Each structure stands twice: as structure tokens, then as C-alpha cells.
Amino acid sequence: MSTPIQGLRGTGEFDTDFRPKNYRELFTLLEPNGSAPFNALLAMANSESTDDPEYKNFRDEMPERTLKINNSGGYNTTATALVVDSDANTRFVVIGALLTNLTTGEVMRASANSNPAVLTAITVERNIGGTSHSIADDADLAIIGFAAEEGATSPIAVSFDAVVVSNYCQIFRTAFKVTNTLKSTYLRTGDKEDEVTTKGLRMHMMDIERAMIWGKKHETGGTTAQPTRYTGGLLNSITTVIDGSAGAPGYVNGVISEDQFDRELIETIFAFGSKQKVAFIGARVASNLQKIGKQRWSPTQVEGSYGVSMTRYATFAGDLLVHVHPQFRMIPGMENSMLIVDFPFTRYRYLANRDTQLLRDRQGNDEDAVKHEYLTECGLELLQDKVHAYIKNWSALT
């Protein structure tokens, strides 16, 4: 029985009946556990062409609608004009909005509409249904609903816009060449042209894999006829970063305890998005997970997960499908990393007619050799941000 992964098409792995549409999928079929496991899984996720090398998407989410008091001396029990941190959430404070002090439990009702041009002041009616309390600096106020007076007109309309984000398609080119003399030479290792063609595809996919993890969105020469574009990778796009290094809140010298990891699972990693996510990890993090698993969890091998070998950690917060990324062994510092990807919110984008292809006979007219190249113009698209996470510098458990 194959194990599906949320966000990936099909119900199982690439098998002998699978007919790859391009060289990218061919590589996935040949080497799912090779140097590019993220792209192997991405090949089974949503792929979409674009007719422009810059592609955009809209990220939308419901606001938290919480405010924080910003007054060093706090407020007494009768104050009604309150200063809060500059925050777009004040736009939801309209006449009739109910707020509660999450520390004292006092309920208040907005008696004036907030000014969209000044996001730091609200006016409230205090002590709804009880005794009012003083309000401390940095106290959190949460909007808990709305109460309209009988016969009142409708409240002021409130709306908010989605955030537009974009990324670029990057041109990847991997060339390889064999002299005609070498082509005609008998080799016990087999046909040299076939060998370099296979190795060239591996190198090409490794380049794409690294760009989609470590790449940074950028464009140079944007006003010229021949600009250079760089696609933004996961590590430079994900804003949910948990750092175990010294100085990070709660963590010292790369130590993240079992209890702290539990809290991160609940409060951060599975706070948004799917309840099943893929984690690409380094060797040291694999050791940390194994220690935790021996004591509490029952890690199981996942079969039929699109050819990529994984271990499932069924936690109380959600399922982590874990794969030790081979390139994390090659990049210094990545042995202490965990990159968590929610595949329903990722997409492989390629410029129309520019997905991975093998272009033959690129050699010069008078060159006594054959030269071929793989060419791809593609990029990574993250449909949402908070659903992914990156843990770095996790070198040990307590």
C-alpha cells in the first residue's frame, strides 16, 4: 500500500508504468533518492508554466486581531483613550468592537472608529459587565466580537488586501563535451557520451536543487535586453526560523531540548497549514530525532512515498516525514539543520517551453567533438510562508 503525501499528485511512487514528460521527471524516475530529493518530490507536486520570467501570487490570511498597549506608565481604571503599537489590526477597531485585556480579563467596547491614518490610538468604553482594572504597558488586547446598540446603523466597512509576492525563473545551463576520438575509442566502462549525458543531468538537477534551497531572489540588468535573474530559494524566503545558537530566545549553544522541540511543533511548525509535512534534515538533527524517537515515538519507514525513502515521526501535533538530505552532508553547517516544507503550498514554475530539455550538438562548426547541454528556466513558488519552517544550529539535545 503506497503512502500519499499531501500536495503531491498520484497515490504512490514513480514506477515502471510512469512515462516521464521531460528530463526533470526522467531524473526523478532514475534517482529519487539522489542528490535532488526536493525536486524529486516537487516533480509530483503542482507544476505550472508561466509566460513571463517573473511570476506573482497573492498571499492572504485572516488577521490575528490583537493589539498591544504602548504606554510606559500603563493606564488607570478610568482611562479611555489608549495608545497601542502601530499595527494594521487597529483598523478592525470600529464602534461596537469588543476587546478584552488578556491579562486581567476586563472587557471594553470601542466608542470611536480608529483613524486609518493613525494606527496607534483607540477609544474605548471601560468596564463592560464588571470591575475595571488598570492596564499595564505591553498588555495584549484581543478583539472578541461586536456588540451593536438597538436601532444603530451598520458599522464602518473594514477590508484588507492580500500581499503580492513574486519570484523569478532562473536559467540553468549544464554543458558537456566528448571528442570524436573518445567517442570512437572502445572503453570497458561503456559509451563515454552516454556516461557524460547521465552525469550532466545529475549535475544539472543538483544545481536546481541548490538554488531552490539556498538561492536568493535578484535581478541584475533589469532595464537591459539581457538581464540575469535569480530565483529565491527556501532558506531566503521562509520567515519562520528557529535558531538554536547562543543568543536566540530560550536556546543556548545549539541545544534544543525535547520539551522545547515539542513546543515548536505545537506553536510554530504545525500552527499553520497541513498536518503532514516533509522535513529535510542533516545528520546531526537525524541523531537528535532518533534519540527522541527511541524514548517516545515509534518512527516507521514510509513505503511508496514517490521513490524517496522517508521515516515518519507521528507526533501529537502532526506527522513529520523525514528524509536525510544528501546535500546537507556536503554543505558545512547544514548537518544541524531541519528544513520543513508543506508541499500543498509549493509549486514548480517554468517558463513556457523552457522546462528541462537536452539540447544536442552545441559544438562549433569546425570543432572535432560533440557538445550537448541541459537547459532549464524555472523557479520556486511558495503560495504561503508561515506553513514552512527552518530550524538551524540544532547541534544537541539536553
Can you tell me about this structure?
The strands form 5 sheets. A 7-stranded mixed beta sheet has the order 13-22-18-14-17-16-15, with helices on one face. The radius of gyration is 27 Å and the shape is elongated. The protein is α+β, with helices and mostly antiparallel strands. The model has no long low-confidence stretch (mean pLDDT 85). Helix content is 17%, strand content 28%. The protein has helices spanning 23-30, 37-42, 180-183, 192-214, 258-269, 283-295, and strands at 47-50, 54-59, 66-68, 81-83, 97-101, 107-110, 121-125, 140-146, 163-168, 170-179, 218-220, 228-230, 241-243, 276-281, 300-302, 310-314, 319-324, 338-341, 346-351, 357-359, 369-382, 389-392. It has 2 domains: 23-59 and 167-392; 66-146, M1 Pyruvate Kinase, Domain 3, CATH 2.40.33. The chain contains 6 helices and 22 strands.
